[in-house]
């Protein structure tokens, strides 16, 4: 009972200083609910609320990652894959964003994956220029080394974000690939 009273007192002291927007934030609400449930001895509900908060944070992170996908060139369309993170959840977590670019004579996908076990496993390959050269042609996009293969462009940014363009000739994909903010992507999630 003392813990619950202490939590209520703490919330009463903190909440007036927060904006209405912050108080209405679903993540904050879920965390506060988890703390309340924990203090009341309901560990399972506390865990459920923390899982909810984690899912909401993951969705926010995915939305930010999606912002790094370039707009479609003139005459092309871009279609976002909204199910990308569901698939990553089955692969062991991480955050992802994907878009399909369709033009008059070709289409391709750009995929961004961050903090995923597959990214970690590809790190040894895409983080080493000599190994990359054994797999295909290595080209530069700004300060980023890109592995260019038939119908594929791949790179690793900041040792944690894998960027792939697939399904079209590299010369078709490169103008869109070059528009990715690799400097900003390196700071993603920081």
Structure, described:
The protein is an alpha+beta fold and 190 residues long. The chain has 2 domains: 2-63; 69-186, Protein Transport Mog1p, Chain A (3-Layer(aba) Sandwich). It is 48% helix and 23% strand. It has 9 helices and 7 strands. The chain has helices at 2-14, 20-23, 26-39, 43-66, 84-90, 117-126, 129-135, 170-177, 182-186; strands spanning 77-80, 95-102, 107-114, 137-141, 144-149, 152-157, 161-166. It has a 7-stranded antiparallel beta sheet, sandwiched between helices. Helix 3 (26-39) runs antiparallel to helix 4. It is elongated and about 60 Å long. Residues 1-24 have low confidence and may be disordered.
Kindly report the average pLDDT value: 81
Count of helical stretches: 9
Query: How many individual domains?
Result: 2
**Beta strands, count:** 7
Question: How would the blueprint of this fold be written?
Answer:
Blueprint lengths: L1 H13 L5 H4 L2 H14 L3 H24 L10 E4 L3 H7 L4 E8 L4 E8 L2 H10 L2 H7 L1 E5 L2 E6 L2 E6 L3 E6 L3 H8 L4 H5 L4
Helix pairs in contact: 3-4
How would you describe this structure in keywords?
single chain; 190 residues; Protein Transport Mog1p, Chain A; 7-stranded antiparallel β-sheet; disordered N terminus
Summarize the structure.
This protein is an alpha+beta fold and 190 residues long.
């Amino acid at each position: 009972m003392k813990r619950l009273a202490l939590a209520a007192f703490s919330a009463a002291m903190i909440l007036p200083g927060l904006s209405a927007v912050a108080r209405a934030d679903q993540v904050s609400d879920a965390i506060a609910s988890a703390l309340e449930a924990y203090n009341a001895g309901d560990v399972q509900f506390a865990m459920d609320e923390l899982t909810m908060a984690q899912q909401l944070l993951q969705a926010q992170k995915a939305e930010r990652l999606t912002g790094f996908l370039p707009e479609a060139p003139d005459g092309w369309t871009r279609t976002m894959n909204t199910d990308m993170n569901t698939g990553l959840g089955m692969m062991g977590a991480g955050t992802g964003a994907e878009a399909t670019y369709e033009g008059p004579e070709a289409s391709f996908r750009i995929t961004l994956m961050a903090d995923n076990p597959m990214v970690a496993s590809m790190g040894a390959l895409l983080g080493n220029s000599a190994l990359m050269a054994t797999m295909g042609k290595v080209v530069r996009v700004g300060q980023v080394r890109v592995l260019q293969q038939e119908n594929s462009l791949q790179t690793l940014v900041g040792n944690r974000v894998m960027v792939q363009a697939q399904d079209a000739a590299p010369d078709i994909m490169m103008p869109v690939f070059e528009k990715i903010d690799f400097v900003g992507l390196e700071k993603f999630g920081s």
